[in-house]
Specification:
4 helices, flat, single chain, mainly alpha
């Protein structure tokens, strides 16, 4: 088996860029303001990423839409991890029942 040098260089470059983006968070975290609009934006980031990942799935079919609506309603009562567990379980059960 031979390794194409271009492919190897691309894989190494992607690995380096990935590593740099991960360590950049540690390097700039101390320099970010502890209050104000930047802090508010950073606090809103995890739910925004979760919505960006879940929204296309919820819009992909009726079973997912029903599970998404039920999960949204449960989000007002349960902590985040509970909402995720119930949402995944509900999608699995609905897919099993309605195929």
């Amino acid at each position: 088996m031979t390794i194409d040098p271009v492919n190897l260089a691309a894989i190494l470059a992607m690995g380096i860029v990935t590593y740099l983006t991960r360590i950049a968070g540690f390097l700039i975290a101390d320099r970010l303001p502890k209050s104000g609009p930047v802090r508010v934006a950073l606090d809103a980031l995890p739910p925004a990423v979760l919505v960006a990942v879940v929204a296309p799935i919820v819009l992909s079919g009726p079973i997912e839409a029903v599970a998404g609506l039920a999960t949204l309603l449960l989000a007002f009562r349960l902590p985040l991890i509970g909402v995720v567990v119930v949402g995944v379980g509900l999608v699995a059960l609905l897919r099993l029942a309605f195929g």
